[in-house]
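REVIEWER CHECKLIST
Item 1: Sequence provided? yes
Item 2: Single chain? yes
Item 3: Sequence as submitted:
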Amino acid sequence: IAIFDIMNPDHTGEIYITKTDVATGDLIPNCKIAILDEDGNVIISDYTDENGEVRFTLEAGVYYYQELEAAPEYVLDTTPHKFEITEEGQI
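Item 4: Structure as written out by the authors:
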């Protein structure tokens, strides 16, 4: 999974999550990815698109992203991954 950030002066940041096959490098569509708060509550979720990418715009804070549903023929990775969006909108 790759993460990218965009600076935003309104104290928000946009996270891009790209799901790829570790063995082949192929992009994986149709994976359900969730953003969780610090208590582990799902605050938003969506599926990766045909490019294996999903995007979320969030206010400054500490979050986790986690896969909720794997694409067909793939194993679900339930590991939560921590990230933070700063007041400057950086991840």
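Item 5: Key structural point noted by reviewer: The chain has a mean pLDDT of 89.
Item 6: Recommendation: ____
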